[in-house]
């Protein structure tokens, strides 16, 4: 079965590749390619739709905000960090999902529910398409402000990918490029719009912690590893920024849904639209995507 739905997940298979998408958050929780798992998932993550918490790992979708919501604006007052898309239960749209020898595609949608209306007053329609291709995985997010909306729809959007590191590789041995000459906000030190002077950035910082928002990052990024030749290619489209995050061992211990030493097994590289907010007028739509492949 190329597309196999269950009560909590939808599994896509193509040749020896497969993807599992949890209905909670439409979170991709597994991507197997060439016999290896490519994403990190905490063993303490609860993927069931009955559980209200975000899934620690995979590719959660941050929407309509990234990070803590803006203060001093009633619209965002009831939102939690990274918004509600990652904790809401999405609908699997079987009628739009398709499979062939070249691609298996599953479509998920999210529209306001009673629970969402309690924290967010504006109408919207999100469509998320997971494309499993022979050599890659493409994730496409579409945001629509309905034609009958009476206000514009402001949002940030981010695909918070947890990339599993190869066996024996730690975050400080992980290299991300090209980020040279980009401006970034350092969420560890609080510095804003710092210039990145390094050609290749290792995922290391004070006590191992890295939390940076790189603005206007190139659309093709590479994750490589010291002393190894394999790498991951992350291609993005219409997601101008990229967040690089790993909390380091000490802070990692304070994350309650993280298994012991789990933070040593991944880096997050998160293509997103963080600044400025995107505004959609009634009837307008926006689309951003990322693709993961390997060399
Ligand atoms: C990153 C943020 O995108 O997500 C970090 O830049 C944050 O500041 C991290 O700690 C994880 O967030 P959460 O809400 O899933 O614990």
What is the topology?
Blueprint: E1 3-5, E2 9-14, E3 17-22, E4 27-33, E5 36-37, E6 61-62, E7 91-99, E8 104-110, H1 114-117, E9 125-132, E10 136-144, E11 153-159, E12 162-164, E13 174-177, E14 183-186, E15 194-195, E16 201-202, E17 210-214, E18 220-225, E19 231-237, E20 241-246, H2 248-252, E21 266-280, E22 285-294
Antiparallel strand pairs: 1-2, 2-3, 3-4, 4-5, 6-11, 7-8, 8-9, 9-10, 10-22, 11-21, 12-21, 13-16, 13-18, 14-15, 14-17, 17-20, 18-19, 19-22, 20-21
Residues 54, 67, 81-82, 160, 187, 211, 243, 245, 270 line the site of 6-O-phosphono-beta-D-glucopyranose (BG6).
List low-confidence stretches: none
Instruction: Report on the biggest sheet.
Output: 9 strands, antiparallel
Q: Helix and strand succession?
A: EEEEEEEEHEEEEEEEEEEEEHEE
Structural class: mainly beta
On the 0 to 100 scale, the average pLDDT is 98
Estimated radius of gyration: 18 Å
Number of strands: 22
Bulk shape? globular
Separation of the first and last Cα atoms: 28 Å
Bound molecules: 6-O-phosphono-beta-D-glucopyranose
Total of helices: 2
GO molecular function, one term: glucose-6-phosphate 1-epimerase activity
InterPro entries: Aldose_1/G6P_1-epimerase (IPR008183), G6P_1-epimerase (IPR025532), Gal_mutarotase_sf_dom (IPR011013), GH-type_carb-bd (IPR014718)
EC number: 5.1.3.15
Keywords: Isomerase
């Amino acid at each position: 079965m190329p597309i196999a739905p269950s009560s909590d997940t939808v599994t896509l298979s193509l040749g020896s590749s497969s993807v599992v998408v949890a209905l909670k958050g439409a979170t991709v929780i597994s991507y197997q390619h060439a016999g290896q798992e490519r994403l990190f998932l905490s063993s303490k993550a609860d993927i069931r739709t009955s559980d209200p918490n975000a899934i620690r790992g995979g590719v959660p979708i941050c929407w309509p905000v990234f990070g803590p919501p803006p203060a001093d604006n009633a619209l965002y007052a009831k939102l939690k960090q990274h918004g509600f898309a990652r904790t809401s239960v999405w609908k699997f749209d079987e009628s739009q999902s398709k499979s062939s020898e070249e691609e298996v595609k599953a479509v998920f949608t999210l529209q306001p529910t009673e629970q969402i209306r309690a924290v967010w007053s504006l109408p919207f329609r999100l469509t998320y398409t997971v494309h499993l291709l022979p050599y890659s995985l493409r994730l496409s997010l579409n945001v629509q402000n309905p034609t009958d909306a009476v206000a514009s729809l402001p949002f940030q959007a981010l695909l918070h990918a947890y990339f599993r590191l190869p066996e024996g590789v730690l975050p400080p041995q992980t290299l991300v490029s090209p980020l040279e000459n980009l401006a970034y906000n350092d969420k560890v030190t609080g510095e804003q719009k710092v210039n990145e002077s390094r050609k290749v950035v290792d995922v290391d910082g004070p006590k191992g912690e890295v939390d940076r928002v790189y603005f206007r990052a190139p659309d093709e990024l590479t994750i490589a590893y010291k002393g190894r030749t394999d790498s991951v290619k992350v291609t993005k489209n219409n997601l101008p920024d990229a967040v690089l995050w790993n909390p380091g061992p000490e802070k990692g211990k304070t994350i309650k849904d993280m298994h012991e030493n789990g933070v040593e097994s991944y880096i997050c590289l998160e293509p997103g639209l963080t600044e400025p907010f995107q505004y959609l007028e009634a009837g307008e739509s926006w689309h951003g995507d990322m693709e993961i492949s390997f060399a």
